[in-house]
Amino acid sequence: MSSSTPSISDSARAIEATENAKLWERTLASKALFERAVLHMPMGVPSSFQAWDPYPVYLREGAGSTVTDVDGNKYVDFHNGFGAMIVGHAHPKVVEAIDRAARTGTHFAAPTASVVEFAEAICERFQAESVRFANSGTEATMTAIRIARAATGRDHIVKIEGSYHGHHDPVMFSVVPNSEMIGGRDAPSNMPMSLGIPPMMAEFTHVVPFNDLEMLSRLLENRGDEIACVILEPVMMNIGICEPHPGYLAGLKDLLHRHGALLIFDEVKSGATVAYGGATERYGVVPDLACWAKAICGGTPGAAFGGRADVMDIINSGAAQQGTFNGNPLVAAAGLATLTEILTRDAYDYLDALGTRLATGCADAMSAAGTPGHTVDLGAKGCISYRPTPLNNYRDFLETLPELYLASYPWALNRGIFITPGDEEQWTISVQHTEADIDGYIDQFSDFCTALGS
Predict the structure, then answer these.
(1) What is the DSSP-derived secondary structure letter of residue 136?
(2) Residue 233 lies in a domain
(3) Residue 44 backbone dihedrals phi, psi, to 5 degrees
(4) Which residues of 138-173 are buried (b: 16+ CB within 10 A; e: fewer)?
(5) Cα separation of 343 and 336, whole Å?
(6) Range of the domain at 447
(7) Nearest 5°: phi and psi at 78?
């Protein structure tokens, strides 16, 4: 390529500038709301994940597969609340369950029949023997780690390089570090993601790459008697989507058990999205403990963790796990309707068909236009990664082209497609999406790929 020929990155930056200007013209009410919000909330949002430069699109309502912003612009939603809304928006069965709970009591801080039924449904679906409830994925992973430490009598944990497991201190190390902070391949950095984390916490958290048993084996040989557990997403979803190599998860479990450590699956994103039984079912490995949130609760703020009964029994022996709102009737009702009435096995056949249609259509569009990228299809979950070949670990993610994502984001919004902010995220398809919704996504993406090469 000559120096006068624009690169695909140059084209992406030009598209980004043009499309952002159009987006800002279409979202003046969002801008005004941001200017109010920033006076009372840091970044003008309730969670830093919702922030965007110069301001986020503020939503007004959702129905079925669509959302509408405060300016009245309507979008087909492939964001779906970072994967929580696999049921779609205002699903009649969820609305009915929430209405029933609202009329009969949303909170007692006492157990109910509905929470017992919800626990039974989770155990059946995810091959767990015992569960407890929480209010978010962060709470679930935080407590699962505590349970693992208490059950093993060890203090150290291992996490995967570049992964995210919530915002509690022990796991806020090596979360999407940039290339300057990542460290060597044989010595991944465990730099904290946030201010306010005591430096001494790094002593107890070790970092290894995904899909790499050799480095973990060396760590366990040296310090295995100190390590309580490994926590990981069985299919890594903090970098788009990175699937486990065949045999990796089973090998991980065997290796940990040889050293007396436990395996924790963070299924906050994959549970109830990649299969009826989550990643446990899809990849055939049952962990010692697992954490679930987002999709299991029908859009209400709930979570759960659990697994082996003998490990969970440590709660009976002094491991603390409390929460005023844990398993409250509102979340239990919505979650029970979600798992037993909506997300049936037939629903996953439908989601699989839509997911394959979307991933195949986007892959064909990139191939036709010569766009460097690949797609991943995991039923309701999937993604486009701007790197020609699939990812093996976080370091491969650093080889993607973020400028292509930054152009695709306003491009999609300006064409009525709502997608997740951040090139590390995925799409989520709901049971209320249609083939026409899928084809609309493919059409705008095909045009985007063409524009990149023009």
Answers:
(1) S
(2) yes
(3) 75, 20
(4) bbbbbbbbbbbbbbbebebbbbbbbbbbbbebbbbb
(5) 10
(6) 8-77+344-453
(7) -110, 5
pTM for this structure?
A: 0.95
Residues 313 and 354 in one domain: no
Calculate helix-pair angle for 345-369, 435-453, nearest 10 degrees: 20
Give the tens place of pLDDT for each residue, 121-164: 999 999 999 999 999 999 999 999 999 999 999 999 999 999 99
Q: Are residues 302 and 217 in the same domain?
A: yes
Q: Burial level of 90, CB count in 10 A (0-12/13-18/19+)?
A: middle
| Contact assessment for residue 69 and residue 27, using Cβ atoms and an 8 Å cutoff | yes
**CA torsion sign, 230 to 233 to 165 to 316?**
negative
Quote the mean pLDDT of the chain: 95
The two beta strands, 66-69 and 59-63, are: antiparallel
Ordered DSSP codes for 34-51: HHHHTTTSGGGSSSGGG-
Using only C-alpha atoms, the chain has a radius of gyration, in whole angstroms, of 22
Catalytically active residues are 164, 266, 294
- The amino acid sitting at 312 is M
Q: Structurally, how many domains does the chain consist of?
A: 2
